[in-house]
Write a structure and sequence with these properties.
Belongs to the extradiol ring-cleavage dioxygenase family. It comes from Amycolatopsis nalaikhensis. By secondary structure, this protein is α+β, with helices and mostly antiparallel strands. It has two domains: 119 residues, 2,3-Dihydroxybiphenyl 1,2-Dioxygenase, domain 1 (Roll), CATH 3.10.180.10; 136 residues, 2,3-Dihydroxybiphenyl 1,2-Dioxygenase, domain 1 (Roll), CATH 3.10.180. 19% of the residues lie in helices and 39% in strands. The protein contains five helices and 17 strands. The protein is globular, with a radius of gyration of 18 Å. The N and C termini lie far apart (42 Å).
């Protein structure tokens, strides 16, 4: 009970057209549009629900909201009490915000690094299916995100002690993976000098879907920032592209699920194979 899954992410972006081209032409993701005040928001349609990624036109590239789906109104009230007891100020979302999210209830607070974190009850199904690129199902949902920050200790306290996420595994000196359901992780926290989203992960149905997306990325000259590979801890096969806002999108499939008997551990090296970085890896394990 409590938080059930990662629901959506909202981004302020300076180049909506470039994002739309990446989502549609390269990744085969349909986009919709909605109004938020006077702005037109682009909504990425990853599955049958209203959206998983919202792009707001802006003069800066930055995270706007990180949205989690909560089981019930009663659980939302319980988590609100836990947050206020821990010193967080929790506010209700506006009617316009609830309508855009497709939620029946919406509350939000600011996390230790200044990001808006939302807790939503309800998801609006608005389609039976999403148009996919030829050859396979393509994208099937929003998997996880990695949040880099100088305040990992405070963020761990929030997600683990207040919001009741479970630690799945970790890698020294400062990378931690947390889950809120059977999926290996829905969020990871990484030590860094400045706060940022390191990457968002889009789930795909199969390795063939990942491979076709890889071919389209190469054909479209999309910068591949981390090559195809398999992670050591969740066993997912993926590659990463640099998106128009400057951080990574992970295109992956095949991550494992874990149960309540899972024992958190240091999983050592980051990858079984592949995942070669075009630039320096900020989370590389120190050389022995």
């Amino acid at each position: 009970m409590g938080i059930r899954k990662l629901g959506y992410v909202g981004l302020n972006v300076t180049d909506v057209d470039a994002w739309t081209a990446l989502l549609g032409r390269t990744l085969g993701i349909g986009v919709g549009h909605a109004k938020a005040g006077t702005d037109e928001v682009v909504l990425a349609e990853l599955d049958e629900f209203k959206y998983r990624l919202a792009l707001y036109p802006s003069t800066e590239d930055s995270p706007r909201e990180l949205g989690w789906i909560v089981d019930t109104p009663g659980e939302l009230d319980r988590l609100t009490r836990r947050l206020t007891g821990a010193g967080f100020t929790v506010a209700d979302g506006t009617a316009e915000e609830k309508e855009l999210r497709g939620a029946t209830q919406l509350r939000w607070f600011t996390d230790p690094v200044g990001y808006r974190v939302e807790l939503a009850v309800g998801e609006a199904k608005v389609r039976l299916g999403v148009e996919r690129p030829a050859g396979g199902p393509g994208v099937t949902g929003l998997g996880h995100f990695v949040l880099a920050s100088p305040k990992v200790r405070e963020l761990r306290e929030l997600y683990e002690s207040v919001l009741e996420f479970k630690l799945t595994d970790y890698r020294a000196p400062g990378l931690f993976f947390f889950r809120c359901n059977r999926t290996h992780h829905s969020i990871a926290l990484a030590s860094a000098e400045a706060p940022s989203i390191h990457h968002l992960e889009f789930e795909h149905a199969s390795i063939d879907d990942v491979g076709r997306a890889y071919d389209r990325a190469k054909a479209d000259d999309v910068p591949i920032s981390i090559s195809l590979g398999r992670h050591m801890n969740d066993k997912a096969i993926s590659f990463y592209v640099r998106n128009p806002s400057g951080f990574h999108l992970e295109i992956g499939c095949g991550g494992i699920e874990v149960g309540d008997d899972w024992v958190p551990h240091d999983f050592g090296r980051s990858d079984e194979w592949g995942h070669h970085h075009a630039d320096a890896n900020p989370f590389a394990a120190p050389k022995s």
